[in-house]
Amino acid sequence: MRVLGIDPGLANLGLGVVDGDIRRAICLHEECVVTPSSQEMGQRLLTIHQRLSALLDEFQPDAIALEDQILRRQADVAFKVGQAYGVVQLTCGQRGLPVYGYGPMQVKKALVGTGRADKEQVMFMVKANLGLRTLSNNHAADALALALTHLASAPLTSRSALQVALQAAESGRTGRRSRRASPKRRADQA
C-alpha cells in the first residue's frame, strides 16, 4: 500500500510518501512545502494545491493520512492551518482519494505503543521503521509518522470494513427471512 502522509500547515506543510506495509515500509519521498507570510493568502493556498497535485500525480497513493487535530488554543493559527487543511481535503476529494484522519495520540500509540510518547521517541521510530538516518525537517517527519500510522492501522481498517460488509450481508439475509410471514404472523393475517 502506498500512503501519502500530510502534516497540514499554511507556512509549513509536511508531506511524506511511504510504500509497503508496517513491517517493510520504505520512504519514497519527504518534503516540506513552505509558503512565506509575505505572499497573498490566495497564492499561498494555490502553492499548496499545486504542489500536492503534482505529488499525487507522481506517486499515485492509495490513501491519504492527514493530521486531523487542529490547534485550539490560538484561533488565528487554527484558522490558517484550517485553510491549508481545507485545500488538502479539496485536492484529495477532487481525485476521489480516501482521507484518513489521525490525532497526535493515535500516531504516538501506533508507532511507540503509548499515547504519552514524546516527539523524539516518535521520530526515532519513524527513522527505524523506514531505515533512515536523518529526516529533512520536523514537518516532513510528522507526515511520515502519519503515513506509517495508517500502514499500522490499515489492517484494522480493512477488517472493520470486512465486518461491516459481512454484517450488511447477514442483515440482508435476515431481512429476506423476516419478509416471509412466520406461522404466527400468517395466523394473525388470516
From TrEMBL:
Cofactor binding comment, as recorded: Binds 2 Mg(2+) ion per subunit.
Matching InterPro entries: RNaseH-like_sf, RNaseH_sf, X-over_junc_endoDNase_RuvC
Annotated EC: 3.1.21.10
Key words of the record: Cytoplasm, DNA damage, DNA recombination, DNA repair, DNA-binding, Endonuclease, Hydrolase, Magnesium, Metal-binding, Nuclease
Main localization, broad class: cytoplasm
Cleaved signal peptide residues: none
Annotated compartments: Cytoplasm
Residues the record marks as active site: 7, 67, 139
Cofactor(s) it depends on: Mg(2+)
Superkingdom field: Bacteria
Database matches in Gene3D superfamilies: Ribonuclease H-like superfamily/Ribonuclease H
One Pfam family hit: RuvC
The keyword Manganese belongs to this UniProt entry's keyword annotation: no
Catalytic activity: Endonucleolytic cleavage at a junction such as a reciprocal single-stranded crossover between two homologous DNA duplexes (Holliday junction)
GO MF term set: crossover junction DNA endonuclease activity; DNA binding; magnesium ion binding
Record region (Disordered): 168-190
Stretches with biased composition (Basic residues): 174-184
Residues that hold Mg(2+) 1 according to the record: 7, 139
Residues that, per the record, bind Mg(2+) 2: 67
Protein family: Belongs to the RuvC family.
NCBIfam families per the UniProt record, alphabetical: ruvC (TIGR00228)
Subunit structure of this chain's protein: Homodimer which binds Holliday junction (HJ) DNA. The HJ becomes 2-fold symmetrical on binding to RuvC with unstacked arms; it has a different conformation from HJ DNA in complex with RuvA. In the full resolvosome a probable DNA-RuvA(4)-RuvB(12)-RuvC(2) complex forms which resolves the HJ.
Role noted for this protein: The RuvA-RuvB-RuvC complex processes Holliday junction (HJ) DNA during genetic recombination and DNA repair. Endonuclease that resolves HJ intermediates. Cleaves cruciform DNA by making single-stranded nicks across the HJ at symmetrical positions within the homologous arms, yielding a 5'-phosphate and a 3'-hydroxyl group; requires a central core of homology in the junction. The consensus cleavage sequence is 5'-(A/T)TT(C/G)-3'. Cleavage occurs on the 3'-side of the TT dinucleotide at the point of strand exchange.
Protein name: Crossover junction endodeoxyribonuclease RuvC
Gene: ruvC
